[in-house]
Description:
Strand 10, helix 4 and strand 11 (194-197) form a beta-alpha-beta unit. Strands 3, 5, 6, 7, 8, 15 and 16 form a seven-stranded mixed sheet that branches. The protein folds into two domains: 5-124 and 303-332, Alpha-Beta Complex (Quinone Oxidoreductase, Chain A, domain 1), CATH 3.90.180.10; 128-278, NAD(P)-binding Rossmann-like Domain (Rossmann fold). It has nine helices and 16 strands. By secondary structure, the protein is α/β, with parallel strands linked by helices.
Amino acid sequence: MTAGTNRQILLIEKPTGKLAPEHFKLHDAPMPEPDDGEVLLRVLYISLDAANRAWMHGATYRSAIETNTVMAGGGLAEVVSSRAAGFAPGDLVFGDTGWQTFAAVAAGHLTKLPRLEPLTYLLSVYGIAGLTAYFGLINVGKPKAGETVVVSAAAGSVGSLVGQIAKIKGCRVVGIAGGADKCRWLTSELGFDAAVDYKAGPVFKALKAAAPQGIDVYFDNVGGDILEACLFQMNQFGRIACCGAVSQYDGPPSATGPRGVPGLIVVKRLTMQGFIVMDFDAQRPQALADLQAWVKAGKLKVQEDIIDGLANAPRALVGLLAGDNRGKRMVKV
Length: 333
């Protein structure tokens, strides 16, 4: 990369099937120039999330990603120059930087961050992953001590934190993950009470054995058949926090999925609520204080999966969608 060049990853084709590295292209563009009210950023780390794939399908809580544009994504970045009040060179921020080495972003769309070590924690446990786990479990799931909490994609960035927070709150925790190694990691390293390997056979039967008293709170990251298996084992007045549906993101829409939902919700008086982390912005300071205290006390273990190099971002996202990661996956630009 020469001086004055901005290296970018463009989405050149929206896949009709599974996402692949060839749907992206590495591209050199001129260095961006910030307008009034904008900040020029050097991107340090890019957050990889299953939602990156969902944005390709159409508008969600953000606009859809269009072809031949910079691939969208959140990033941890350092201010290079500022044409906006409140931001100065050297400041650390989080924002929708996209997959590129430099970005000019409106100041109103940036969150200023403290400088702490390791910096990557600002994307994992103190970033979107940690806050999503915290608010989704505590504010939506409302767990009580002694209850059974089940979380899917339990070895991922959000799920691995959800289970640990549920243990901190005095719950019995069951994680659903893919593969024996991940399941062993959940129980031996993160303190989950039980783990179900969805690759090993029917989830319903294994889940019934792992949660014999039924499920009080289900934190759903995947949707589809696993959501259905959990729905039928929910206890009366159970709560379901709907965080994501990764089983539906990559490839054509699945014809399978939760059946009998309306009747179950009525008979069992279930609460099923979707959420995004921005819903709880006002409570962010308290959430961060709790997360930092739990990490410092050793109650919350942080697992990160850092991929080196912007050029490797497409393959890293494809791998994340296939479940290759353990903990929070990000790209060091």
